[in-house]
Amino acid sequence: MAAPEFPNAAIRLTIASTPAHLAVVRATLERLGELIGLSDTARGEVVLAVDEALTNVIRHAYHGAADQPIEVTFQPTRNADGARALEITLRDWGERAEPAKIKARDLDDVRPGGLGVHIMQRCMDTVQYAPAPERGTFLTMVKTL
């Protein structure tokens, strides 16, 4: 049986900023990862990175409000070298993240929480923040297959 053709169409979900909706995103990403040929390890890394990113949006952009929109886009693509990749973009309309202020916490600073940025950077090949027009933030992460 031949491998499925590498899809090129984006999948877009709009969820409310409630932790209950994270399971829908995780399940969608798990299945997409299978379809495009992500290894089990890579799939787990991508799911973890997206889960951390969404948790940060809920916590920092929306300050815990459970009724605000988050748009999630999964775009199978190819990187500059032509290798297959998965680009994931999160778009919120909350408090704008200042890219210069976003950094991973020093791992020697042992305390609960605060490792989301570190996890995203370790699990993904690229992590980029950009201000959205008027308000909110675009977070784009890429994982090469």
Report on this model:
By secondary structure, the chain is α+β, with helices and mostly antiparallel strands. It has a single domain (11-144), classed as Histidine kinase-like ATPase, C-terminal domain (Heat Shock Protein 90), CATH 3.30.565.10. The protein has helices spanning 22-36, 40-61, 116-123; strands at 11-16, 69-78, 84-92, 126-131, 137-144. Strands 1-2-3-5-4 form a five-stranded antiparallel β-sheet, with helices on one face. The longest helix is centred in the middle third of the chain and has 22 residues, at 40-61. The model has no long low-confidence stretch (mean pLDDT 87).
Protein traits:
145 residues, alpha+beta, Heat Shock Protein 90, 5 strands
Kindly estimate the percentage of residues that lie in beta strands according to DSSP.
25-35%
Quaternary structure type: single chain
Mean pLDDT: 87
CATH top-level class: Alpha Beta
Major sheet description? 5 strands, antiparallel
Give me the CATH fold name: Heat Shock Protein 90
Short description:
The protein is of the alpha+beta class. The protein is 31% helix and 27% strand. Strand 2 (69-78) and strand 3 form a beta hairpin.
Question: Layout of helices and strands, plus pairs?
Answer:
Blueprint: E1 11-16, H1 22-36, H2 40-61, E2 69-78, E3 84-92, H3 116-123, E4 126-131, E5 137-144
Antiparallel strand pairs: 1-2, 2-3, 3-5, 4-5
Helix pairs in contact: 1-2, 2-3
